[in-house]
UniProtKB/TrEMBL annotation:
Entry keyword annotation includes NADP: no
Chief subcellular location: membrane
Keywords annotated in UniProt: Cell membrane, Membrane, Transmembrane, Transmembrane helix, Transport
Name this protein carries in UniProt: ABC transporter permease
Organism: Carboxydichorda subterranea
């Protein structure tokens, strides 16, 4: 096994305690919040349920056992790919999450395109025109984007583009139509674009001062070739790093965005499950999000070797 193979194996092994820690935290939090999960299993009209029947329901779902026994049982089933059934819909959690996963990945990918498509050019232009009005305007916009809460930006865009001018639908999925994707993608992607712009500007400024860039310009190479071949290529490591971190963060940020725009993704599923105290669904959704986050970061680490041949995995 080569260096890259050993590195991947080590990272995947380290993922195991991370997932275990996440499941433990979620399990404990869901069991210490006020309320009885029994009421997620029965009709609200059955508040006066016979104690014997209530006890039978608890026994059926394993809620009568100590918490540590419930947690160990959950882990044992999860290893086999069984995350349990929803207290509310009785659907298998794995099926429920997989059904919503496509919508979340579609939104995350669109938001990532917005983030890189807006943030990277803005950062490069700001670096090449350091100290100008364009540089100042770009950084002010980036600071505003970083400071702006996602829910406020979403409501603002909804008012401007959907309510005031009626250019786009305010919410919904619309069978996956592109026009329904624009508002949530902008809401999720623009704050990340601000972060990418700041990092891209900083990385480009550092690279453009290097001797090889000065030499390339002295040889008379076109400015575009200097910026792309000698500037951007050598500034990609920090840019790719922040894009990877933010791409993982898009999954958690999608929880708020999907709620605002009624987007049927894993984030919306998670919010609904928390409100209903549907513990199996909450645990399953969090595990999926955590695994995706870790895998995105692993992919970013692996791409370093393709960006910079000097990077070696030992």
């Amino acid at each position: 096994m080569g260096g890259l193979g050993r590195y991947l194996a080590r990272r995947l092994l380290l993922l195991v305690p991370v997932i275990l820690g996440i499941t433990l935290v979620v399990f404990v939090l869901m069991n210490v919040v006020p309320g009885d999960p029994l009421y997620s299993l029965i009709d609200e009209r059955s508040a006066g349920l016979d104690p014997a029947v209530a006890e039978a329901i608890r026994r059926q779902w394993g809620l009568d056992r100590p918490l540590y026994v419930q947690y160990v049982r959950f882990l044992a089933n999860a290893i086999q790919g069984d995350l349990g059934r929803s207290f509310v819909s009785r659907q298998r959690v794995t099926e429920a999450v997989v059904e919503r996963l496509g919508a979340t990945l579609r939104l995350g990918l669109a938001a990532l395109v917005v983030a890189v498509g807006v943030g990277l050019p803005a950062g490069i232009v700001a670096a090449t025109r350091r100290g100008s009005a364009v540089d100042a305007a770009s950084m002010v916009a980036a600071m505003a984007g970083v400071s702006m809460p996602v829910f406020w930006l979403g409501l603002l865009l909804m008012y401007l583009l959907a309510v005031s001018h009626r250019w786009l639908p305010p919410s919904g999925y619309g069978g996956g139509a592109l026009r329904y994707l624009v508002l949530p993608a902008l809401t999720l992607g623009l704050p990340v674009a601000a972060v990418v712009a700041r990092i891209a500007r900083s990385a480009m400024l550092e690279v453009l001062r290097r001797e090889y860039v000065v030499t390339a310009r002295a040889k008379g190479l076109p400015e575009g070739a200097v910026l792309v071949r000698h500037g951007l290529r050598n500034a990609l490591i920090p840019i790719v790093t922040i894009v990877g971190v933010q791409a993982g963060g898009l999954l958690s940020g999608a929880v708020v965005t999907e709620t605002i725009f009624n987007w049927p993704g894993v984030g919306r599923l998670l919010i609904d499950a928390i409100g209903r105290r549907d513990m199996p669904v909450v645990q399953g959704a969090v595990i999926f999000i955590a695994v995706l986050f870790a895998l995105v970061n692993l992919i970013v680490d692996v791409t370093y070797a393709f960006i910079d041949p000097r990077v070696r995995y030992e």
